[in-house]
Amino acid sequence: MTTPAKGDKIKTKTPYKTQPDLDKIISGGNWYKKLIETMDDGIIATDMNRIIIYVNPAACKKLGYTEEELLGKSSLEIVVEEDRARVTRESAIRFSEKVSTQYEITFKTKVGSKFPVLISGSPILDENNQTLGTYALITDIRDRKVVEKELRDKNNELQNLYNNLLELYQQLGAIIAETTTVPSTEILLFTSKHCVYCAPAEEVLQQVLASYAGKITYRKVDIDEEPELAAEHEILSLPTIAIGEEQLTSVPDIYKLHSALFSALVPEEKFRRTRQELDNIIDNSPVAIFTINSKGTVTKSNPLVGILTGVELQDITGHDALNPEKNGESLFPKSLIKLFKKGLKGKTITEDRLRIKDYSSEKDDPFSIVSFKVVPMATKEGEINEILVLCEDVTKLAMQEEALSESYTKLEDLNDKLLQLNKDRSNFVELTSTKLLEPLRNSRELIDTILRGQLGMLSEELFGTMEFLRNNLEKVSKSIFGIIEFSNIEAQDFSLKLDEHNLKDLISQTTSLVGSVGIQKSFIGTIELSNEVTVWCDSEQIIRVLRNLVLNAIQFTPINCNIHFSAEDKNGLVAVYLKDNGFGIAKKDLKRIFEQYVKTDPESSGSGLGLSMVKSLVEAHGGTVRAESEGKNKGSTFMFTLPTNKASYEKLISKKEKSN
Q: Which pTM does this prediction carry?
């Protein structure tokens, strides 16, 4: 067994003194009850038959019952019928496995109304760890459900808009194909042999070009074989689709590719347009479309333009759009007229959210905010003689996006409050646990005094009883320390102090901290790994992980505990192994042991939080943890992974955030 090096400093927690007024409140016997009875969330406690034995005022208010009406009632009566089986199943899990569960159900009030809630349930245990009942924290999630529905509705509206625009571009593509020779615009798909996204990008490109009846083709360019062409187009990432001067990188969106292709073809191809077909597509378009010639006269428009301008359709054609003073009134706002003039000079213009007038929520006023596009059209000789204007009403969509943004802000605020609530809970647990530790410590010191014979000689039977009491007090103290430690980690009441550390040094420091527990079990640790293995981690937290795993192995080994430490490189991660010769773990328990309050041996000391704490700390570093065992008395192997360097850590955390 290794021992601490001389000069090593052991960190101890700085003692603190509670503010007198606060200490007076906490020392009072009813402050827990006041806390529960004044909180906003409801609390309901039930016995093993799911009969309500306690409710706080918040729960009564939410359900519309008095306390007397709820006490003695089956908890299933306040749950909608379709959710009762789930409540029964979840409470049975809490009863049998002594674990906390969280799930969503719908409550039914006294007057018959319904509302969704989040249930955070935990078992009620006696001093012998036997289940007596369960209690549930009830959080009203109606606001969250409203936001979720709004998100779904907005996504559906966006999808409908994209479908309409895609259909329009496909129709325009068909007209171009029938009235145009093969375009001079060269379409290039830049890729390489190692580009895995080339095939999906090419599939999207082929789908878009199908609208042009096969008259427009593209060429695939391998940048390794034609580096000069790639340099000429300044290709920085793959795959890239180059259409004239415009480039689309990665796998392009079908709508964006249609838009880029159409913008490139219309001004540069100078195609011969069949006016009748163009007029037909304008008349039947799902968006407002009109054309303006080089003199500024509106030559064609569809009914939606009448809604846009507020003018009868027959009065729009022939109107001078660029010089409103000639007509005595302005058909279009000045902001649009400026864009028309730029289009007649050959510039393609796209505006995603263009506000052309104030929006009133009291009056349904369309075309206040528009998605706007101006496409110049040229003659065969290259002269701009007309512009095509597409205008989509996105007023409601823009307003919904603003509302959605506000909803996201509210959700972020709620999340911040939740994080603060977790920290408050952690502080509450630590504060209350500390208050429990003080009388336990005093009791243990008194028992030690009695066992030393300072208060008189004890009979053998009484000595054994006092020693039994002292051991129980020791177990309770360890459990409380475990709860405090886990609560801080769960509330993320710490920040990782990351740096590069030698793994062998971390293991050596850990084995030196085992102390008397290791001596009693004749603990021997063998370290079989290179001195060159390094990990990117918070050394204090990983030593805590290793120490919990070592103490767990010692606890479940009868005597002569041997732990073999090893490590191997796994795709940029270091996998750390701890193999022991203990009792082993049953297969049914391998996945459960990392859950909160799970103890494979109910009689063992500890809080059942050690391995759950290990899992939380390893995952905070972007790693994973698992246990393996071949069965009873065949030992166990615990394995967890850590990043090897800063880049590997950032990649793991980024991947984790995306998956969440």
A: 0.34
Q: pLDDT (tens digit, 9 = 90+) per residue, 501-510?
A: 999 999 988 8
Which single residue is written with the structure tokens 């709620």? 414
**What DSSP element (H or E) covers 394?**
none
Residue 432 Cα distances to 31, 392, 436, 594, angstroms: 11, 61, 6, 25
Asked whether 632 and 584 are in contact (CB, 8 A), the reply is yes
- Alpha-carbon distance 607 to 600, whole Å? 12
Flag whether 28 is in a domain. no
Three-point CA angle 305, 310, 312, nearest 5° = 75
498 to 492, 621, 645: CA distances (angstroms): 15, 9, 10
pLDDT digits (tens, 9 = 90+) for 502-559: 999 999 888 887 755 665 667 888 888 888 899 999 998 899 899 889 888 888 887 7
Interval 487-504: pLDDT, tens: 555 545 457 889 999 999
CA distance linking residue 460 with residue 441, whole number of Å: 24
Residue with tokens 């049953």: 586
Quick check: 498 and 535 in contact, CB under 8 A? Answer: no
Q: How many residues does the chain have?
A: 660
Kind plus residue range of the DSSP H or E element containing 73? none
Q: How far apart are CA 125 and CA 116, in angstroms?
A: 28
Q: Characterise 15 by phi-psi region: left (phi > 0), alpha (psi -120 to 50), beta (else).
A: beta
Nearest to 214 by CA among 247, 176, 251: 176
Cα 522 to Cα 558: distance, rounded to the nearest angstrom: 10
Contacts of 470 (CB under 8 A, 6+ apart): 444, 447, 448, 451
Pair (414, 506) in one structural domain = no
- Residue 136: Cβ within 10 Å count: 28
User: Long-range CB contacts (< 8 A, 24+ apart) of 19-27?
Assistant: 26/431, 26/432, 26/435, 27/435
- What's the confidence (pLDDT) of residue 80? 93
Longest Cα pair distance anywhere in the chain, in angstroms?
A: 119
Distances (CA, A) of 556 to 172, 206, 468, 626, 639: 74, 63, 21, 17, 17
Both 511 and 655 in one domain: the answer is: yes
Mark which of 469, 490, 511 sits at the end of a domain: 490
- Beta-ladder partners of 429: none
Question: What are the start-end ranges of the H helices in 98-197?
Answer: 142-179
Give the gyration radius of the chain's Cα atoms.
36
Could you tell me how far CA 241 lies from the centroid of its own chain?
Answer: 32
Read off the tokens for 170.
């496909």
Q: Is position 4 within any domain? A: no
**Do 632 and 648 share a domain, yes or no?**
yes
Place of tokens 């964006």: 256
Pairing of strands 637-643, 573-580: antiparallel
SS3 51: strand
Neighbours of 450 (CB within 10 A): 18
List, in order, residues 6 or more apart from 565 with CB less than 8 Å away. 507, 525, 526, 527, 528, 529, 576, 577, 578
